[in-house]
Amino acid sequence: MGIPLNIDWQQILLHIFNLIILVGGLYFLLYQPVKKFIEKREALYQEMDREASEKLKNAQELEKKAQELLDHADDEITERRIKAEAELNERDAAQLLSVEKEAKRIIAEAQKAAEEERRSILDHTDKEILIMTKKAAAQMVHTSTEEAYRQFLEAAERDEGHA
Fold it and tell me: Is 137 contained in some domain?
């Protein structure tokens, strides 16, 4: 065989055939299972990404609803506080009115009691003045009668002494 550089074409073809068998075997034994594994893994990650996206979307919707509820709750709290303040003001006004009525009643009773006490004191004072006047008049009458009687006796004694 007169092949330059001592190249045996038959050996080259056998090596190429072995290489093709090796590549084909590796393709069927390793590449396809690895490719299927990678595709499954990729599908798994895509499914996980899709689920995560859905969960994120749901979480955002829930957050939005929660924010709306919080905003509504703030409005409701403000509304209830205004109602409570109004009720408190009404109660305060009613209580103040009740207290004012009670105060007027107490003042009226106190004035009535004071007027009765004044009348009682005036009546008692009038009675005492009357008693004192009677005593003074009696004493004046008694004193002047006694004095007149004494003068009479003295005069009578003088007349007897002269007679």
Answer: no
